Amino acid sequence: MEGLKRVSSMKRCSNVVKTKIVNNLNPICHAGQQLTLKGKFFITLTQDQRKSIPGKFISVQIYSGTEVDPITGKGKLSEKAVLKHDGTKKHDNGDAKTMIYKIRINVYSHFGTPRAFLIQNRYKKRFFLQSASIETCNNHIIHFDCNSWVYPIKKTKSDRLFFSNACYIPSETPRALMELRKEELERLRGESDVNSESEERKEWGRIYEYDCYNDLSDPEKGPEYLRPILGASWLYPYPRRLRTARKPSASGPANESRPRNFEIYVPSDERFSPNKMKELKSNSIHALAHFLSPKALHQQCSKSFESFEDILDLFSASRNQRIEGWVRDNLNKMLPIQNLEEIIRLIKNKPLELPIPEILSENAWVWKDDIEFGRQMLAGTHPIKIQCLKTFPTQSSINPSFIEQRLEGWTLPQALKHGRLFMLDHHDYLYPFLNRININGVCAYASRTFLFLRSDGMLKPMAIELSLPGSSLSKGISRVFFPAKQGIEAALWQLAKAHVQANDTVYHQLISHWLHTHAVVEPFIIATKRRLSVMHPIHRLLNPHFKDTMHINALARIILINSGGVLERTLSSGEISMQLSSELYKEWRFDEQGLPADLIKRGMAIKDENNPSGVQLLLQDYPYAIDGLEIWVAIKKWVKDFCSFYYKDDESIRSDVELQSWWSEIRTIGHGDKHNETWWYQIDTTSSLVESLTTLIWVASAQHAAINFGQYAYNGYPPNRPTLCKKFVPMEGTIQFGEFLKDPDKYFLKMLPNRFEMSLVVALFDVLSRHTSDEVYLGCQLSPGWIDSESIQNRFAEFKEELKEIQARILERNRDPKLKNRRGPAKIDYTLLYPDTSSSWSRTALTCRGIPNSISI
């Protein structure tokens, strides 16, 4: 190793010399003296690693961060030392334990301050290096947050490099670390390996490359499973994803093979922890037990439900026992699950359960209530689509006079002027796709739903417009439905509401959830890993908000959004689901993803420079927006404090070569199909940087939490939010209308997904709505020494305290009887943006609260 002979030839001394630290950088000792650096390394052993790793197989060399080796141009490198076992720390969950190792390395006094180290694993297995610390001769401790797998040297062919928790913008990087910083980024981009593009990806790989969505097809199953490539196309634009193919296609991106199990390649540092993977596999049994059932079980489940009470059987204990028995007998047939013995043990220890969704907890029929229907647009699982109207849509087939009759004494111009008229719009974007959607038993309309803001702050549905396009044999139609309390009109109104909810569910899953959080964030993650050194302060700020996202996205492409996947099987959009997502990506703008900008766009707020959030809400009882704006303001203040600490002026931002390269790569490659758009921020001022980072953190944390973790509470009972409809609303004089008249409830049930499809979506929403036990929440970090700056740590502590104060205000608002949308007829408290960082609740339960740092499920 570099410098090893020189250090080894020096006269060694075992005495520890006390020194001073100047600006935490340079220890001062008398010339010729030696000092001993003492280090501790914390290695986490997972459940499958029964024995500790002998320290003699792990060696470490330390780089100086202040003194340069004139030969290598890098920091001086210490001699090599092996680790010695120094104790064990068991984890609270009992699934893992941390082995503590120590080292002692002698260096001369002019070695300088350690700021990086190399670690080599000569053991036969990988290990997870949680953290390390090096104590200098004056008892100053330098922290390293590693959180990374270290693979055997026989596989990687090189040592792993880790930098300390000190952050530097490129121009302030100590000269001893400059070359190391550059080399590490080149390694992550694959530039240090001339064969990186052609070689097969290995489990231990750490290369980050972009790719299109060319892995959604499954040609081996037949031509009906072919799907267009998304991305790098004017016809099908899309964000880029991480290249996850173990072996690149010989004939181009169109033929990337799809894995048949959970073992898809992602860089080792992006993979779930073994404990999280175990939890995900266990939870996924709910979905997979239905999704991959044998034909006999599928045929049994293909029938529709006979009654609403019959649907409740989905949650019965006897049914759970039947599922468990089937899983025990048939689990070995499920392609996505390996380690059969482990999973069967999990089932035995944790029986399958489908809890009663919260929408049913107080009243089994509240989902039919019109006020609850409107409230969920403000405080349900998808409260980000509704808009306030300033003008009545001229394209609508509804006669405005019919609307005016239902405005409780307001004229239509008055209602529009004073922000009392609202619309849930699923019409124009969906209309061109309906002829392709309405095949194979699916019946979908384009829809507009109009609502009026009552004096008590709640929304009253007034009318629903359902439209169908014409064909070569028929003209297009538009039908209008109005609320009714009883009789045939009331039953038809319930059918119309179900079609609206099916449309809203499609938009929620494909656009608001998948596209606008999971998919659009991934290019930011890839660019961060490729262009911002781990020493870069912006990398340090963003990294907690990227945890596990690329791995969950990769799994989604083989289970959820792929051809024949769960979403194609359960959503009305079927096999064109991802094409619809691509079409709506054409409308996506990064500068509209922040909460204030989104509220202004939807007419739910106006600009107000005197307000900390920059906007004033027009609807005072809008739980998602009220709670969300407080979270937004807290995040933005924290980001501004952070950026202001490292960037003293705008010029330092403009001259940051890594930052500018990062932003350029996001615009021109990661979101390359939109590189010509003029709305992209120019990262040349503190304000533009803060706005961009706040938006990114908001989307990855609070926005995702708001639209994900309440899914089971509302979608878990499919009549409340069906994923598709199998019948149109019957027209008078038809055979279907006669069937409807005989038994309106039975017609409604036959319109819903069948038993198989409904069981699958209930199980899916159960999985998606659960937090995992190793989740890290907004306002929290993995370790107290996550950054080597006391000032930044103090500001982060202020951020956490602000979140606690927001928690208290949310609970106070939920108790306020005047704020009726906080609970509504369903009596469900709005807590989806409650940033709970306590440990007083079961994190794996369906809690409908807590804001994880990242998109990790």
Q: What order do the helices and strands come in, and which of them pair?
A:
Blueprint: H1 4-9, E1 20-22, E2 26-28, E3 34-45, E4 58-68, E5 75-77, E6 81-82, E7 84-90, E8 97-108, E9 114-121, E10 127-135, E11 141-150, H2 153-156, E12 160-163, H3 175-189, E13 210-211, E14 241-242, H4 274-291, H5 295-301, H6 308-311, H7 317-330, H8 340-349, H9 370-379, E15 387-388, H10 400-404, H11 412-417, E16 421-426, H12 434-437, E17 446-453, E18 459-468, E19 477-481, H13 487-531, H14 537-542, H15 549-559, H16 566-570, H17 577-585, H18 595-601, E20 605-607, E21 615-617, H19 623-646, H20 650-654, H21 657-670, H22 686-708, H23 711-715, H24 735-742, H25 744-751, H26 755-768, H27 790-814
Antiparallel strand pairs: 1-2, 3-8, 3-10, 4-5, 4-6, 4-9, 7-8, 9-12, 10-11, 13-14, 15-16, 16-17, 17-18, 18-19, 20-21
The helix-and-strand class reads alpha+beta
Biggest sheet features: 5 strands, antiparallel
State the strand order across the main sheet. Answer: 7-8-3-10-11
Mean pLDDT score? 87
Strand content: 5-15%
Write down the Rg: 29 Å
Low-confidence stretches: 1-31, 248-253, 289-300, 330-340
What is the terminal separation in angstroms? 42 Å
Helix content: 25-40%
| Outline | elongated
What is the overall number of helices? 27
Strand segment tally: 21
